[in-house]
Amino acid sequence: MSRAIMGLYEFGPFRLDLDGRVLSREHQALPLPPKTFDLLVLLVQSPGRAFSKQELMNALWPDTFVEEANLSFQISVLRKALGEDGARWVETVPKHGYRFSAEVRATIPSDKSSIQPVTSARDEPSSVMQKRGTGKVWLAGAAVAAALLVVATFLTIVRERRPAGVKTSPALAVPLTAYPGDERAPSLSPDGSRVAFSWNGPAQDNYDIYVKLAGPGEPVQLTTSPARDESPAWSPDGRFIAFIRFFTPDSRSSSASSPNTPADLVVIPAHGGAEKTIATVFPPPIPPSVRPISNLSWTPDGGWLAFGGTTSPNGPRGIWLMALDGSEQRRLTEAARHDHSPVVSPDGRYLAFLRSPTVGRHAIFLVPLTSDPAPSGSPRQLTADDPGVLGLAWTPDGRDLVFSSGGHLGVSRTAKISAVSRSNRIPIPEFLTFGEQATGISIAGARRLVYSAQSRDTTLYELALRGPSATPVALAPPFSSTFDEQTPHYSPDGNRLAFASTRSGTEEIWIANRDGSNPLQLTSMGGPQCSNPQWSPDGRSILFDSRRAGSADLYLLQPDTGKLTQLTDHSGYEGEGRWSRDGRSIYFASNRTGRDEVWRMPAAGGAPDQMTRQGGIGAIESPNGFLYYAKSAGSPSSIWRVPIAGGAEVPLVDGLSYSLNFAVSARGLYFVALNQTPDRPSVDFLDFRTGQRSTLVRLDKPFWLGMTLSPDERSLVYPVVDNAGSNLMLVERF
After folding, report:
1. Is the overall model pTM greater than 0.85, yes or no?
2. Domains identified in the chain and CATH numbers
């Protein structure tokens, strides 16, 4: 029997092994969801054939009625997995279906090459640098392999344990909502008939709580406050919905010195009516790059609400219980960083929660509860803290936990673990066949599950600063894709751009020529935050931030050799690094004093000096002898300056959208500014000579992270959010 019949095909740099159900690229495994893999098999086995949509749906979901949106979703996942060529190879045939247009080759290898994971280690060029080609370097998925190879291993284990001859029908996710904007943090009623969720509404102007049937039907708006309402949670008897109402900016002066965000715990009848404020609490802050999930849960007796954060502006962190009448509060966990997103088991015997040592890294912990309730033991870790966890829910029998996980800003998927076990070993997760890009999970009734599927596409735009046109222009690929592109930086000669992108499945550092040619992925961190690349003044090195080792640190990468060096190793936050103009020093932000301040260290490493004393981050050295920086990482923030040689710290301008969103020229400051409508920012300029502020262009899309000024000061490059939103997905009998 030939290898082609047994099922080994090649197209482009990819190899598809039907026997092992593995898609690989250059010996790197690229695990696909089962349904997406089946779709690829259908297309690859009949290259050039125009499949109708109905034909593909019948083959993928035999004896099951599905809507066309399910096929469209699988097509989208497949195209993204295949990188830049995905849209060209998986071709849309108008008014008919799809065709696979790549040249497919049946191969007969001399042996089965092993699939090896990509790893990265300090000062090891092969662990960081992607292999160069002699021609154009095509976009790779190596980082996905590094982050998700374990997924393939787990799936293999699960398949091997399944009894022979048992045929299972995979659970299917179907859209429950398709509204404009962002529907998130779903919560099913106890009987599973209705779902409450937070939505920014038809006008996408404010988050309120809505309720709808878990099926056809329009949503009913439950709250109308101008404040942001999040994290709805049904009471065990189905009569009430609790939620968290975040204060509007500047509405409570007590929060000025708190690292947490003030909010009210509110309860409202499920059919509408008078609200009751239980208490004021302080949930942990959510950076703009982090996808928010629920942070509220009831105890089964309906007497307590569990939340993560603090009960006072600067109080002790952890998971807390608040009595429903607000008369009593109990601390269940103690956290050095942040404990949040609690979920109480259906029988009230356990509480699961997320512990976040740093941005983009979470672990699931479990603590047993007494009947009071109170903790009856120490928290036990159930998952490693490498990936981010974006949703968490108990199964109705109280034995398993379903969760969604993925790298910082990258691709996520759902899994299930056994939570109730006498073993202290971390359980092996079983990855599920649904839940791509899932955040916020809720389970109720007869194993009915709802999650929020989120998507975002950010693109780098260029604004010419000289000439008649003041219209931003989207840069061509690779500076645009169906994923995130952010934190751009020009090389000193202006011929290349470095930027961060999630197109490989995880956030990694890329470079490309300014005309878009020769794109190259430089890092393979495989999940942790990896962003903010900064070319050195001599163009030989790139400084960037990563949470590869857990805490946020600065790294130095030499693109020509792939050599990677970790520059800082403090246990706190160290990031948003910038070079001095002579390349001998590096400015960076650190919270080692208890809040973000600007520090300066020798470029070769060494003890740093503190540059600011009143808060600071994202500092840039200017030609006029000053250091310009953002006051804080919040949004909005303000731009300040301090003499490099030391002196007074002076505020210059308010309304900065984010700490990375400004650039310094010889003439003044360029920055992305927030106006009355936060989702419609502008690019503004502050003239150093006159002190006057002017608007260069108003943007019709939300801001994103980063800004760079070309060396000749003729253009700005910055990202905006081209498309973003989320819909609720429904899974029956999962």
Report:
1. no
2. 1-112 (1.10.10.10), 176-455+726-731 (2.120.10.30), 484-718 (2.120.10.30)
